[in-house]
Amino acid sequence: MKHEEVDFRRAFRATPEHCSAAMMHAARSVKEDAPARRKLPAAILIAAIMMLMMTIAVAVEGWDVLAFLRIRPDGGASGLVEPVTVDSDAAACAIRIESAITDGTWLAFDWTVENQDPSRHVYMQVDSFTGNGMPLSIDGTDDFHCQWFPGWCNDGTMQNGELVLLPEGITGDVLHVEMVVGLYTPVRPVYEMAVFDAEQARQKQQEGYYVIAGGDGFVKELPEEGLVQCFGLVRNPSAEGMTRSEMKIAFDLPLKNLSEPCALALPEPAVHEGLTLQYRRAETTQLQTTLTLLLIPAENSRDAAKYVWNDGYVTLTQTDGSWLDVNVLSGENGGAEQLADGRWCESYTLSFATDPQLPETISMSFLRDDGTVLVCPIKIR
Fold first, then answer.
1. What is the pLDDT of residues 261-290, one digit of tens each?
2. Cβ distance 246 to 127 under 8 Å?
3. CA R_g for the chain
4. Taking the CA of residue 65 as centre, how many other CA atoms within 13 Å lie in the half-sphere pointing to its CB?
5. Measuring CA to CA, which residue among 230, 137, 145, 143 is closest to residue 184?
6. pLDDT digits (tens, 9 = 90+) for 18-72
C-alpha cells in the first residue's frame, strides 16, 4: 500500500497512555496536501491494527524482526532470519536495524528510530526504498515515515518494522536493500499548537515561527482554501522553510537456496445462502501462508460483487467459525471481476505468519454484519 493512497498509521496509531493525543488522528486516510476519505474492508483495518499494536514508543530490549512480526522464535521462519546490524545517524537522529528476513516473496526487518535531541523538531520521511534497484513500497503502517520527531512519542523513540511484498522480477543470489530517510528541519523557531487554528497559526507565522499543529503535518497556504493543515511528503525543502539531511541504510539478504512456495490443495467451494466461497490460491513458505478467496454472490452482477463488503468482511477463523489466534501480515481487496464462466466475484487475499501451533485446518471466512460466519475450511499443512 502506498502512502499517498492510504496511511494506516494515521488511522490507527498505537496509543500509550502518555500519547493519547494521537487519537485525534483516528480513522483518517490521507493524500498529500489534502485530506481524503475512503471506506476500507474491515479485514484490512483489523490487519493494520494488529501490526500497529506492535509500535513501541519506548525502546525495549530484544527488539528484532521476529518480535516485530510476532513470530515465535522456535518456528520455521527463524531459520531465515539474518542479522544485519545497521546504524545510521544524521541531524541528531538515528535509525538502527538488528535483523531482517525474506522468503523471496516478502521482506521484513525491524527498526528503532530515535531523535537524540527531542527538543529539536525533525520531520522524517522515506525518500527512497529499493530492492536490487527496484522500487519498494513502504508497508503503510510506519510511524517514522512522514512523522515529526519527537511528535506523539515524548522521548522521540519509536520501535516497529517494515513488511513489504517484493516486486516480481527480483532475481539473483542476493537481495540488496537500500533506504534513504530524509530529515527535514525547520529553519525558523517552532511554535507548537495542540489543535490547528488558522487565525492563531497565521499570527505566529507573521511573528516568524514555523507552526506545527497537533504534532502532525504542515500548516500551509493553499490558493483556494487559505491557511490549512496538510499531510504528506516534503517535495521542496527550501520552499517549505526547511533544511534537509539524510540517513542511508543498506544491507544484503541471501536469496540463494530459498525454498519455493509450496502449493496447498484447494478444497471444494463452500456454498452458503446468497454467497459462495471458493479458494483461488493457497501457498505457504517458512515465513508466511497466503490465501486468496473468491466471494461469489448468488445475484450474478458486477454491482452485487462490488458491494459485497456492505454485508461483512473476510477474516481467518477456526473451522467452526470461532475466533482464531493468528498473526495476519497483510490483507488486500482484489476488486470485482468476472470469471471465465461468466460469474461475477470479489476477491480477497490474506497473508499470515506460518505457525506450527495453528490448527491443521482453518477457515478463511466471511463474517456478516448480523454475526453469521460463512466458513470455507482449508488444510494449511
1. 899 999 999 999 999 999 999 999 989 999
2. yes
3. 22
4. 24
5. 145
6. 333 333 333 323 333 333 333 344 444 444 444 444 445 445 567 899 988 888 8
State the cell numbers at 114.
530515535
CA 279 to chain centre: 25
CA–CA dist 112, 95 (Å, integer): 6
- Between the CA of residue 224 and those of 23, 227, 232, 376, what are the distances in Å? 29, 9, 18, 51
Q: How far is CA 347 from CA 226, 291, 292, 369, 373, in A?
A: 42, 10, 7, 18, 17
Q: Classify residue 309: in a domain, yes or no.
A: yes
Give this prediction's pTM.
0.74
Final residue of a structural domain among 235, 254, 273: 254
Strand-pair category, 210-213 with 190-193 = parallel
Whether the CB-CB separation of 128 and 137 falls below 8 Å is answered with: no
Q: Are residues 249 and 330 in the same domain?
A: no
Instruction: Choose among 158, 162, 155: nearest CA to 124.
Output: 158
249 plus 326 within the same structural domain: no
